[in-house]
Amino acid sequence: MKRVALSTLSLALLAAAGTAHAQSSVTLYGVIDESIQWVNNTMDASGHNKNLVGLVGGNLSGNRWGMKGSEDLGGGLKAIFQLENGFNINNGKLGNYNGNNLLFGRQAFVGLASDQFGTVTVGRQYDPLVDMVQPLTGDNYFGSTFATPGDVDNNDNSSRTNSAIKYVSPVLQGFQFEGMYAFGGVAGSTGSGQSWGAAATYGIGSLNVAGGYFRMDNSSSLAARIANGGWASNATSDAMFYDGSQINTAYASAKSVGIASLAVQYVAGPFTMSGRYSNVQMKPDGFSSFDSTQRYNVAAGFFGYQLNPALLLGLGYTYTHGAGDTSNTYNQVSLGADYNLSKRTDLYAVAAWQHANGTQPGTAEGTSSAGASIGSYGYNSASSSQTMVSLGIRHKF
User: Fold this and answer.
1) What does each C-alpha distance from 40 to 318, 381, 382, 386 come to in angstroms?
2) Average pLDDT over residues 224-251
3) Sign (positive/negative) of CA torsion 362, 366, 370, 373?
4) What domains can be seen in the chain, in order of their start residue?
5) How far apart (Å, rounded) are the C-alpha atoms in residues 238 and 97?
6) How many other C-beta atoms can be found within 10 angstroms of the C-beta atom of residue 21?
7) Nearest 10 degrees: Cα torsion 141, 145, 150, 153
8) Which residues is 110 bridged to in the sheet?
9) Model-wide pTM > 0.85
10) CA 13, CA 18: separation in Å to the nearest integer?
11) Can you give the C-alpha Rg of the chain in angstroms?
């Protein structure tokens, strides 16, 4: 009888363990994106334009691997987490964020999710504009080649936010909103280096609209700014300035960066049409290397055509105008084709041409003629135009 009772108890414990296991899940996932890329009018070390040919990863999707999971706590409440690493496919190194190699540099957060009340997460995360506005733009389909020159409005996710608390509401009749606050972490100066933002999205049928605002404050310490190349916010340690683009690198010492963004998308059968607008304000203070607020107004359009279930074609145009500290204009036309070999593997071809005019921050003379720099790649040109072509393969797991 004892032996039977013990066996029964063991089966009961195993059943309970199996039930608990079924209520929890951990998923390993990733993206591997690689291409051969050609770029003309790219400056070499001596400042002369040359053609560049090489292997470049992360055109449509940044290379990554990660883990995400959830545990059912009952009553519609779950504990969730996500850890996501970025890496360079061509040398195996960790992803580089503002000169730092971070183990989970793309995302690292934990939180609680409720079917009724929404989701709260804490850690290193995307800002509300990336979560809600970017998915309606051409960058969501064809990546960096369709991004804003210099990524001045963070449309290409150049910035991640550290020490962030984020709330995302449930979807209510097609409406959803999100708010985020990130601590600067400076003793006695709560606002130094802080970031905050909010966004909302609404979808009805084939129409989706999203808009929001994101604000990043630099450190109030001159020593910290000098030590970190200008931008020293603990909350956004890898803001948009560090892709090396001559378009915005000079404004890394800004006191603050504010980004307001709006996007509209309409889907009609195989056609996807979207438009977006961003206003960026880079404000100086006494520690900045520039004196006047630099403003960027960005207007962009995207047209996608699903030629057949396997092939998506895309056309994008981006107009960027800078004024204030310097005055410049960038016109960029982008093309893309993405062919699915399977649900997880696709081949792609993307190309862009950009023309720049006006002035940009220069050396001793103060300004120089604006040079082209496509998307968020950081390939600077000594001339007013630049062309880029990438042929690649992407695999998701």
Assistant:
1) 20, 9, 11, 6
2) 84
3) positive
4) 26-396 (2.40.160.10)
5) 5
6) 9
7) -10
8) 81, 122
9) yes
10) 9
11) 23
